[in-house]
Specification:
Layout lengths: L17 H16 L2 H5 L1 H19 L15 H22 L1 H13 L18 H17 L4 H15 L6 H16 L9 H7 L1 H13 L2 H30 L2
Length: 251
């Protein structure tokens, strides 16, 4: 992202294949919101989507996907991902007004069991450095109305930027993917949080990592491919949402 342009994301919709990818992602998510089960029963399907997203996000960071039946989750990465997932709804208003505060809270939840007890003061605090501070501030400006880019682009950029920046030094992947979900909800792309693109990231983890590495280069090709990739993952996440809704309909 560049702080020079009035709209930091203003030219991303002009990248090859991005308008088509954005449109396909929007259409796929809109369709699953029209599923009969999701018209009234969406709180149940959204809750299942949230858990699946948390498990996949944890696995991407080396955590477990297993939730013991009736038992306590002991894997620190999975426990953190589940706590973050539970916080997304309550944090939505904070995210829309003070995204850096929301990111700090998500890091506290994600990394509570990852940071040694003697270093608990690190929780919720970005690593020092002018570049980290500047890029986080720019990210906050984008989230709070500093761009007219469509939701799929903003979600991809927020996700990719936090992966690249790794501002906290622990739990950053879980926080980045949760921030992407928050953008999807807040932007109206996926207002009920039904889609599960995290499952698509996990199923093709090498493609996910390669696309993220491309975004980190900051080149037009790398950023464009990351946005297109995230849009494809959102389409796949909508298919996952449909499978959740179909299963719920069958009782």
């Amino acid at each position: 992202m560049s702080a020079v342009a009035e709209d930091p994301l203003g030219r991303l919709l002009d990248l090859p294949g991005v308008p088509e990818a954005v449109r396909a992602a929007r259409d796929a998510v809109a369709e699953v919101h029209r599923h009969p089960t999701n018209r009234r029963g969406w709180p149940t399907t959204a809750a299942e989507a949230s858990v699946r997203a948390a498990r996949a996000s944890a696995a991407l960071d080396g955590g477990s996907v297993e939730i013991p039946a009736g038992g306590e989750v002991t894997d620190p990465v999975l426990a953190g991902a589940l706590r973050v997932a539970e916080s997304i709804g309550p944090l939505l208003t904070t995210w829309e007004r003070a995204p850096l505060q929301a990111l700090a809270r998500m890091h506290v939840l994600a990394a509570a069991d990852l940071v040694p007890a003697g270093r608990s003061e690190e929780l919720g605090r970005p690593r020092p450095g002018e570049e980290i501070a500047a890029r986080l501030n720019l990210l906050a400006r984008v989230v709070t109305g500093g761009t007219t880019a469509p939701g799929p682009i903003v979600a991809a950029v927020v996700h990719g930027e936090l992966l690249t920046l790794a501002p906290f030094g622990s739990g950053d992947g879980v926080v980045a993917r949760a921030a992407g979900r928050l953008v999807g909800i807040a932007s109206g792309l996926d207002p009920k949080g039904l889609a599960v693109p995290e499952v698509a990231y996990l199923r093709r983890v090498e493609e996910y990592r390669a696309a993220a590495a491309g975004f980190a280069t900051g080149t037009a090709d790398g950023v464009g491919e990351w946005i297109r990739y995230c849009c494809r993952a959102m389409e796949a996440g909508a298919r996952e949402a449909r499978s959740i809704a179909d299963a719920a309909a069958q009782g």
